[in-house]
Amino acid sequence: MKRPLTLFSLALIFGITISYLTKSYLFIFFSSLTILLILFAIFANEKRENFIIVGTALFYFIGGFNFLYGYNSNINKYIEFDQEYVTIKGYVISNPEIKENRVYYVISTEEIILKGDIRKINGRIRLSTLNDTDFIPYGKEVKIYGRLNIPKGKTNPGAFDYRNYLIQSKISAVVFAKGENIKVKDGYKGNFAVKYGLALRDRIMEVINKSLPPSQASLLNAILLGYKSGLGENIEKMFRGAGLAHVIVVSGMHVGYILLGFIVFFRKLGVKRPFANIITILALWGYALITGFGPSVLRAVIMASMVLAGEIIKREPDVINSISFSAFLILLFNPALLFNVGFQLSFISTISIILFCKNLKELLSMRMLPQYLTDVASLTLSAQLGVLPVTAFYFNEISLVGVVSNVLVAPVIGIITILGLVMAVLGQIHILLSQLTGLCNNTLLSFVLFVSDKTSDLPFAAVRVITPSILFVVIYYIFILYFFWYKPKHKVKLLPKQNIIIWVSLLFIVLIKLFIPKGLEVVFLDVGQGDCAFIRTQEGKTMLIDGGGYINRDDDSNTGDDIVIPFLLDYGITKIDVVAVTHGHADHAQGLKPVLESFKVSNFIIPDVPVLDGLEELLRVAGEVGINVERCKKGDIIYLDKKTYFEVLHPKGGFYIYESPLNNNSLVLKLYYEDVSILFTGDIEKEAEMMLLDDEAPIGADILKVAHHGAATSTTLEFLQRVNPSVAVISVGRNNFGHPSNEVLELLEKEGVLVLRTDMDGAVIVKSKGKKSKISNYRQ
After folding, report:
1. Are 725 and 676 in contact (CB under 8 A)?
2. Which residues contact 347 (CB under 8 A, 6 or more apart)?
3. Per residue in 669-682, pLDDT tens?
4. Are 748 and 542 in contact (CB under 8 A)?
5. Please, which residues bridge with residue 524 across strands?
6. If you placed Cys at 682, which of 302, 549, 582, 772 could pair as Cys (CB 3.0 to 4.6 Å)?
7. Per-residue confidence at 153, pLDDT binned at 50, 70, 90?
8. CA–CA distance from 597 to each of 526, 573, 626, 631 (Å)?
9. Across the chain, what does the average pLDDT equal?
10. Which top CATH class is 80-190?
11. Domain 520-777 falls in which CATH fold?
12. What angle do CA 746, 751, 753 make, to 5 degrees?
């Protein structure tokens, strides 16, 4: 085989993927044996392939085993300390990461102390603290007191998997501690090379900050060093909208510019190639060190090192082998990086450029474009063709002006990078030399900021898209591989009849998926301490009841942006027929604000009561975007389609409960779908429950959304017996109110009701075709 390394890399990737999906050592072991036997059966008469056969099965097993071992050891390392207040002894192994008013560090732990019991544990945790104290330098020993938390992982469809994100950096847990609970000691530990690499990065940043205005300095720090903390969220958003996000993330492009600078420099000096290549390789690895060994930088540095080393030993470089080798090394060291978005974007864009760039350049050359425009446009388009589904999957956003902005900016980024390196070197001699060089770089950086600002402001510069399905992604890659690589390479000319067959086949597959009857689907989302439920009928009508509240009040982050919207996009939702808010408490209403601002909403339903505290902001947004607002009370009917409707059971017209008024005057809605019924109770307490009982409201239901997160003030025995549910869903998160109460949990158990909790089970998903319901929890 010409490229066995490529096959071994693919086997490694396949093994990691299978172990991620199955989480089973046994499956990996027996599937490895199966692969080995199948390959031997296929190539039984070709003994020269034995090395390839054994290597393929072996690296499949290594990939799977390595991932599972690392994953399980990370998850289990601190499991006994989850949610406990502990004292942690260790040392800092990262520079401070600044976000809004928080600072984050990675701590290498040595001891964990719980109630006097000392355990020696070597691992990593992520420390967050308020940005009100001096930064802690790399390597400093620390003693921390705080509550340790192991992230739950992905608990909602479409949600960001924070636990897996941390595992990519071998971090097992997080802890928050205030400044007074963090003691910095005199001792120093850590990696010598990393320490001086970070120190060098800090010195370079200091030079840049002294040589340029703040905005331009922050941009150069991002371009040259990958340090984005100084940019601010608005600048990052602007670059994403302009299709220039790759500019502010240190990647293969930046490594390429630095490599080019060294090649030109040594050629001008007349340095012999072997010596120049060795110095360049060392410089590139030094650059990888000071930028933090990101996956995209590692990929580019490994590939460049292979090319330069090949020149030294007079070997012709093979770009596919170089890509395979870099992926192989990175994943062998840390298999979890396969699921890192930077790793995926870097490798897919590089492969796309190799496969498509030449053919696109030939296609664009026929349009009589200038050579420069042809080169930049073909490079940009080929990379974007490959990463489009990945970008849509992770960010739900696609830039439509990326080609234009890249054509304008691409010529100057290389000059900015090289001038930035010159500034960094000259600044070590005298800051004035860096400032003089910075006069030119300031102009170029200002130009990049100007282009980003203007292109991101263009109408439809970036469009929000739904999360693509696996079927769509597969069809998409088949399409672009065929039409932009295979067809031009093999000079295939399809007859019109063959074209029709291909398009009809693809259309048939899509139509089957679209028109298979889906029935009713109800999802009780895990929004922490709050409520949120999504309903989609068999005819595709949609409704959202409540939206959760704040995730972190320190930075005003809420569930609407971070949980509800990603979920809706993952479910392919671009329009919502009805949004209902049960009452004005923040844990129900706050998350709806970004939903009303971002989605086309036909109707917004609120309770018909005289006091609307907490809903003022939502009503303002609804008025600004032109959403129809309806006040609902007992007796009103909300029709979604011919088989699905809601009956409003509360509040009662003309009556207002003054005891715990916002809770007790919540909307109570009963969903009907053929033989299936679900009761949504908001946060009503015993006073409202008694009113419903006295009025003999039709509260009987198959599924009960337990009121007020399972508080002891709700779900009385008489009310529960009248509802008589088979399943009870408690929407709850970590809180200081004692929700859900032991009394309610014991009552539900005594009455034989199956209880599902979003804090333990994740999102609760109900599916029905009208007769029975199938209920599942997302964490399982």
Report:
1. no
2. 299, 323, 327
3. 999 999 999 999 99
4. no
5. 533, 764
6. 582
7. confident
8. 22, 15, 10, 20
9. 90
10. mainly beta
11. Metallo-beta-lactamase; Chain A (3.60.15)
12. 90
